[in-house]
Structures are given as C-alpha cells and as structure tokens.
Amino acid sequence: MRTTLxxxxxxxxxxxxxxxxxxxxxxxxxxxxAAPAPAGQNWTETxxxxxxxxxxxxxxxxxxxxxEYGSRTCPACAAFARDGFDxxxxxxxxxxxxxxxxxxxxxxxxxxxxxxxGRCGGTAPFFPMLEQMYADQSATLDRxxxxxxxxxxxxxxxxxxxxxxxxxxxxxxxxxVKQRGISDAQAKTCLADTALxxxxxxxxxxxxxxxxxxxxxxxxxxxxxxxxxxxxxxxLKNAGA
Length: 241
Hints:
Blueprint: E1 47-49, E2 55-57, E3 64-70, H1 75-93, E4 97-103, H2 109-118, H3 126-135, H4 137-145, H5 149-156, H6 160-171, H7 173-178, H8 184-191, H9 194-206, E5 215-218, E6 221-222, H10 229-238
Parallel strand pairs: 3-4
Antiparallel strand pairs: 1-2, 2-4, 3-5, 5-6
C-alpha cells in the first residue's frame, strides 16, 4: 500500500511533482469534430462518477478523454487548476474533450479528508467544489503547517477514521463545505463512510503508473512529464482537441 492514513509530513505539502518541461513527441492526430450537447444541456454540467473511482465532466463519448490523478493538498495540482480550469472547460463545452478527476492520496489523511468532503454533495457540485478547494489551498496548508507538535501527535494517535474527521476539522474543510451547502450532519456522515474511504484508497492503490501528482492520461496513454496547463494543452492539441 503506497499511501497510509497517517498524518503526512507537513513539509511534504510544499511540493508534489517536479516541473519537467519535456513533453510527448508523437505525431499529431487529425483534429476531431465538435459534438454539441443535446438540446437544453451543457457538457460542463454533465457529470458522472466513473467505475474507476473518479468523476467525469463532459461528453461521455468525447474523442479525447483527459484523466487527471490529483491531490487536493498538492500545490502543483492547484497551479494546474488555477491556469487550466477555464480553458479546459471551454474544450469540454465543445464536446471534443471530457475531463475526469481521480483523487490520488499522496499525502494520506489530509487528502482523504478533503476528497471525502469534496464528494459529499454528489455529482453536480463536484467540480466547482474541487476548483474552490484548490483556490483555498494556501489557507488550508497554513492551518495544517501551523499545528503544534503536540497537536500533530494527538492526531496521529487517533484511529484512522477518527483521524480523518479530526484533520478535516483542523484544516478547515468542514467549515469550507458547510459554507457551500453541506450541513454539519451531512459532513459527519460522509467522514464516517468507511466504504467511501476504502474506495478512495483503492483508486490510489490501483494507479500503479502514477508516481506523483498531478499525473495526466489522454485516451489511456500517460502524458509524460506534464505538470502545467501549457504542457497538457499541447498534448490535448496533439491528440486532436
């Protein structure tokens, strides 16, 4: 098991994946045609949970399928969200590209706490909640990094499920989702959902090709050394988007 429920070393939260500017060099694919959404619908509002444990936004039959493995406590992932969400959304609107996000628990319990609460509202708010969590990430990491050694030791001494709930409180995630329509009771129920925790851990364990976050795949092929939106955008264009 490559991830644990133990509290991550908070020093690790500053860096998740090195920025390598190399990119794939495969021959460009022919441009794919746009695929308008059905009348009265918008592909960006078409969201569903996938069998692999992620959430997909967009045309389920899109010719170009982008999958990101990301950590909600990863600054490199937050930078990708900041730079890439708007232009990626426009590609999704065209019906040419779908975008699936899979939580990868590189930082253990902090990632579990945020991933569980990020799913608590269901499919419709999943991507807005994800984007807003990344926008608020600096404040979240500050709260975790400012925990005293005694507080960290106390958290680490808790049973795994209690640890997740305690970190969710300490990081401010519970207040964060309550401000966005999730009740306190609903948050507590989600944090106590062992089946959901097991599902998230399984998604991370099964991603054997993923060594760091963010990691991207297009139509099942890993986009090597891609971290920034600019690199992913180039790969999407190379795939015909």
